[in-house]
Specification:
7-stranded antiparallel beta sheet, Alpha-D-Glucose-1,6-Bisphosphate, Chain A, domain 4, flat, 14 strands, 2 domains, about 350 residues, about 25% helix, alpha+beta
Length: about 350
């Protein structure tokens, strides 16, 4: 008769506790399974770049000699009559200057190529500079090429951009023919052809180093709008109103939110935007506006604001109030960039940081 062995539960538990990996059964067919049959979508595909380059080229033939056209492009006294007031010089390489529209909006410029008439002996000349709208927008390149012709000069201006706003070709492409016509009219008559200020605008933009979804979450959260928009109360929600502090020297403005479209909310586009209007007691009218975000390459966005219905304000206030509002939005855009690009700095009621 065989001897029966009684199983001691405590002994089994002790063995389990002291067992090593070599004590357990092995399954050779499953060894290195991750290498032998990898999971699907591993490693996953990922975007590493998403870029586009834009170029707008506009040309016209003028009866003026290249030397005269060059003076119109570079002489501050001439520039002020047909394009913008020039603070500094477009003929000084690598030195900043400003093309000022005198309504609060301007281009910060840096010349990178200056070939005046006679420099190369052919009569042709080139002027190239980089510029940024309000000093904070995306940098684009502008190149003027003057070519001698039998009747005068052929003027070609080329603007190039990397990952600009989606409507850049529409606005800038439609704008350059008008600019060249103003140049031609000035050269023909010698009188002022500049607009005193534009009916639409102001417009401000800045590139943020985050994706659309992250930018939206940071900027339009309750704490976010208090920082970059300087709200004194209210929320960014449809049919809501906010009080916005434009600065201790500029007072406050009421912001009425009309529509809020969040990322992915309105197919087929996933781009978010906010439509609103601003009003101050002295305006006796409202100025419409739109805030929106769109891609600027991979992992970057362009944050933009634009106004319209500006001409409804009393004529005596249009220029001064426009300057105040342009300055406010330029500061707001820079605060938005601080929020998205680096640790936020504390702000004060007078908007000094």
């Amino acid at each position: 008769m065989s001897e029966r062995h009684t199983i001691n539960p405590t002994e089994v538990a002790d063995r389990a506790t002291t067992a090593t990996a070599s004590d357990w059964p092995r399954f050779p067919s499953l060894e290195q399974a991750e290498e032998r049959i990898p999971r699907l979508h591993t490693p996953g595909a990922r975007a590493i770049s998403r870029d586009r380059w834009e170029r707008i080229e506009t040309t016209t033939d003028l009866s003026a000699a290249p030397e005269k056209v060059w003076r119109a492009l570079t002489d501050p006294g001439a520039l002020k009559l047909w394009f913008a007031a020039c603070h500094g010089s477009l003929e000084q390489l690598h030195r900043d200057c400003v093309l000022d529209f005198e309504d609060g909006e301007f281009f910060l410029c840096r010349p990178i190529l200056v070939e005046s008439p006679g420099d190369n002996g052919s009569g042709d000349c080139h002027l190239q500079y980089l510029w940024r709208w309000l000093g904070i927008g995306q940098a684009t390149s502008v190149t003027w090429h003057l070519e001698h012709t039998e009747s005068g000069a052929r003027v070609t201006v080329t603007e190039e951009a990397s990952n600009p706003p989606s409507d850049w070709r529409t606005w800038n492409g439609g704008g350059w023919p008008g600019i060249l016509e103003q140049l031609a009219d000035y050269l023909r008559t010698g009188i002022k052809w500049r607009w005193p200020w534009r009916r639409m605008g102001p417009y401000a933009q800045i590139e943020l180093p985050v994706s659309i979804y992250e930018a939206w979450d940071r900027l339009f959260s309750p704490s976010g709008i208090r920082y970059w928009l300087q709200t004194m109360g209210g929320r960014i929600e449809s049919k809501q109103s906010l009080t916005v502090l434009m600065g201790d020297a500029s007072g406050m403005v009421e912001m009425k939110v009309h529509e809020v479209v969040q990322p992915g909310q309105s197919p087929p586009s996933f781009l978010p935007y906010v439509t609103f209007s601003l009003k101050r007691p002295i305006w006796n009218s409202e100025v419409g506006g739109r805030l929106w975000i769109e891609p600027a390459g991979w992992g970057s966005t362009i944050f933009q604001v634009f106004h319209y219905n500006w001409e409804s304000l009393p004529p005596g206030l249009q220029l001064s109030e426009r300057r105040i509002l342009t300055s406010f939005w330029a500061g707001a855009m820079q605060r938005a960039n601080q929020m998205c690009g680096q640790p936020a700095m504390p702000t004060a009621p007078h908007s000094w940081t």
